[in-house]
C-alpha cells in the first residue's frame, strides 16, 4: 500500500512540474511587427488582402519543432493578447501559422479592425517575455 501511495505522490508531483513548467525563453530584444498593412490603412472590405509578418532577433520554426530562439506567428484579429502563461486559442480571432508562414491573406467585414501578432513556441504558448507586435488598426471599406 505504501508503494502505491508513494507512486501516486510522485506521479502527482511530476504532473505539477509539467503543468507549471515555465514558458520558452525569448531572445533578448526580440519583437514582432506587421510589415503590411500599415496602422490606419484602408483595406478592401469583404475581399482578401495580404498581411505580412515581420520578426527581429529570433527565427521562425513550425509548430512542434523545439529549437532555441524560434517560434511561429499567431495573428490576433479584433482581440487583446491572451493570457501569456497559457496556450494561444485557435479560433476566428486567433489565427495560427504553425507551418512557419510569414504572410497570409485575410478578409474583413466593413469597419474598423485591429491586428496584432503574437509569437508562440512549439506548443503555441507565448515566450518569456512574450514576443508580440504593436496593435494596429485597419479600416475595411
UniProtKB/TrEMBL annotation:
InterPro entries: DUF4399. Keywords: Signal. Residues 51-138 form the DUF4399 domain. Residues 1-21 form the signal peptide. Pfam families: DUF4399. This is DUF4399 domain-containing protein. It comes from Paraburkholderia diazotrophica.
Amino acid at each position: 500500500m505504501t508503494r502505491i501511495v508513494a507512486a501516486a505522490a510522485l506521479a502527482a508531483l511530476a504532473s505539477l512540474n509539467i503543468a507549471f513548467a515555465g514558458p520558452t525563453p525569448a531572445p533578448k530584444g526580440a519583437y514582432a511587427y506587421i510589415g503590411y498593412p500599415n496602422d490606419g490603412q484602408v483595406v478592401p472590405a469583404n475581399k482578401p488582402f495580404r498581411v505580412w509578418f515581420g520578426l527581429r532577433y529570433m527565427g521562425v520554426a513550425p509548430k512542434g519543432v523545439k529549437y532555441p530562439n524560434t517560434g511561429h506567428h499567431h495573428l490576433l484579429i479584433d482581440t487583446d493578447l491572451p493570457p501569456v502563461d497559457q496556450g494561444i486559442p485557435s479560433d476566428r480571432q486567433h489565427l495560427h501559422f504553425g507551418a512557419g508562414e510569414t504572410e497570409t491573406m485575410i478578409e474583413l467585414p466593413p469597419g474598423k479592425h485591429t491586428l496584432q501578432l503574437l509569437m508562440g513556441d512549439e506548443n503555441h504558448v507565448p515566450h518569456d517575455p512574450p514576443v508580440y507586435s504593436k496593435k494596429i488598426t485597419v479600416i475595411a471599406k
